[in-house]
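Q: Hydrogen peroxide-inducible genes activator, please. Structure only.
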Amino acid sequence: MPATYLPTLKQLQYLIALRDHGHFGRAADACFVTQSTLSAGLRELESHLGVMLVERTRRVVRFTPLGLSIAEKGQRVLREAEELSAMAKAAHKPLSGDLRMGVIPTIAPFLLPRVLGKLRGEWPDLKLFLREEPSGAACESLHRGHVDCVILALPYACGDIEHDDLFDDRLYVAFPAAQAEQIGDLVSPDAIEPYRLLLLEDGHCLKDHALAACNRPELRAEAGMMGTSLHTLVQMVDNGLGVTMLPKMALDAGILDHTSVVARPLAAEHPSRRIALVWRSGSPREKEFRLLGKALRKASADHTEKK
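A: Structure for Hydrogen peroxide-inducible genes activator:
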């Protein structure tokens, strides 16, 4: 009985790159090989398996259903192989070498500047590769193995994950300074006029957290314009176009500097989002991620105490 052919990790890497990029040249660049090398590796894989994985035409690259299934399975195999290597490194020296971390846009510009310096000081051998994406894309990148962990705002449906809570991030209502005398030290959700509420566009979990905190379902349907970033929303408010919701970390980072916008805490039953480090459930690097969570928690707390 002939031996079963086992694809090499390099062949799986070529296949997955082609699926992700949909183009032989771009896939080859991503793998740091020539296009002919990548193409030959895939043909060898197909030949040994005795199946067609990719339909090649002059204009498009189209995966067969089996090709897509094998690429999906291959992604998990590659991910496990990478985690085995990382686990071996961590056994000798934790938080050293490469670590790919996703961060969502409503956290990245406000948290990273205050913690990265301390992380480098405490773990000088750690080489962080950062990837900024909205929550849904970040979770997909996590499960596809494109990143090892993600700094995310919870609650959020991110699939089969484990997490380490970092801190709570209070929500504030931001409004033009002209309204300051009409508003007290806290802002009730009932005081927010739906047609004046400015929110982030779909895909940002902060939008859902803000609406959930207000517990007013009609706000989702009646809210006004949407922005692509918190900075855009602040500029809209500063020009008198409405009010918006901002997390405390953005206020601490100075997002309202050089504006006339005023912010007050939201008075609600659950007025905060929970910032956490998340990773794939069952990852062999769990101890390392919890160590990273502890370092992020400490770095953030140290920064807050100094303010």
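A: Brief note, in case it's useful. The mean pLDDT is 87.
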